[in-house]
């Protein structure tokens, strides 16, 4: 490797692009879309100029460089080694893949956001829940990621956001499937055909419930204005719900349909508001209410 290549202002970006191309088969457009999801505003043409070594402002290079390194850290757990001037595997013990979600505006009579890559990046989720003024609801299957956010991420990433909502008097409800129910047994046995790890889900849920009960005690000790309630339901799950202020005109919803044979984290996500999609919101909200009918509080 020449000294000129090492000292090139865009060297790290080029190396990062090559790595993401090799590991994820991402195109320049894919990376640009992910950068935009991280609030790094760069066009495909501009990114191509960087990769091609054409003259680009140093400030732009630094911003894009940080964005590319964030994508690499989140999605493949690599970091840039300044000494070796190359990317290396971090091998972080608690690391979990976090796909930087690409948002697409679907133009129709009414519009919504489609996150085709799957589960939202955590910062996008916290931006969403922080719009709540009255109530926040989340329904999943195992709610493992939900509990992991409290116990395996630093408090500033998620826990502090939830505690701030509770302090403001916002009520939070979360729902997961009853691991002892026939519906859970049928659901997980069927999914095991393509996803072997699903067979262990009832035990995983038991551990999640233990964590959530511990979390609930901590929340109660703070005597927040808002309450956090947790429930188990007894229906075969069809999708994940994240709902803000459902009974108000400002209601918003995120829905992810569970695709058979696809891990839940990789199922596409829809995001929409009641004011723009009243019929769509009503259908999904009615479905949610039927899912939680008869739910039991943990």
Can you describe this structure?
The protein is of the alpha+beta class and about 300 residues long. It contains 11 helices and 11 strands. Strand 3 and strand 4 (about 110-115) form a beta hairpin. Helix 2 runs parallel beside helix 5 (about 60-75) and helix 7 crosses helix 10. Residues about 1-5 have low confidence and may be disordered.
First-last Cα distance: 60 Å
What's the total number of strands?
Answer: 11
Mean pLDDT: 90
Shape descriptor: globular
Strand sequence of the main sheet, in spatial order? 3-4-10-9-8-5-6-7-11
Order of helices and strands: HHHHHEEEEHEHHEHHEEEEHE
Percent range for helical residues? 40-55%
Rg over CA atoms: 21 Å
How large is the count of helical segments?
11
Keywords:
298 residues; disordered N terminus; 43% helix; two-stranded antiparallel sheet; alpha+beta
List the helices and strands and how they pair.
Elements: H1 3-7, H2 11-24, H3 28-37, H4 44-51, H5 58-76, E1 78-81, E2 86-89, E3 103-106, E4 112-115, H6 122-129, E5 135-139, H7 144-151, H8 159-167, E6 171-177, H9 182-191, H10 201-222, E7 228-233, E8 239-244, E9 252-257, E10 269-273, H11 278-291, E11 296-297
Helix pairs in contact: 2-5, 7-10
The gist of it:
With 298 residues, this protein is of the alpha+beta class. The chain has helices at 3-7, 11-24, 28-37, 44-51, 58-76, 122-129, 144-151, 159-167, 182-191, 201-222, 278-291, and strands spanning 78-81, 86-89, 103-106, 112-115, 135-139, 171-177, 228-233, 239-244, 252-257, 269-273, 296-297.
